[in-house]
Specification:
The structure is a single chain. The protein is mostly helical. The chain has one domain. The chain is about 75% helix and about 0% strand. The longest helix is centred in the C-terminal third of the chain and has 20 residues, at about 45-60. The relative contact order is 0.24.
Length: about 60
């Protein structure tokens, strides 16, 4: 598992346990992320995962 995937999954898992706003929305992506092959060559996808999970964090901090 790559670093960005680990960060993304960690963010979602922690946020779900804390009942954070929009964590369920981000969690919908997890199964897809866990099943994918290595995506090291796909910078766009790596950035997308970090953006999806950052949106969840940002929502938590601003609500």
């Amino acid at each position: 598992m790559g670093l960005s995937t680990c960060l993304s999954l960690g963010r979602v898992g922690w946020s779900q346990r804390m009942g954070a706003p929009s964590s369920e929305e981000a969690a919908r992506h997890v199964k897809e992320w866990e099943e994918e092959q290595r995506i090291v060559e796909h910078a766009t996808e790596l950035v997308r995962r970090l953006e999806v999970t950052w949106h969840m964090i940002e929502t938590t901090l601003t609500t």
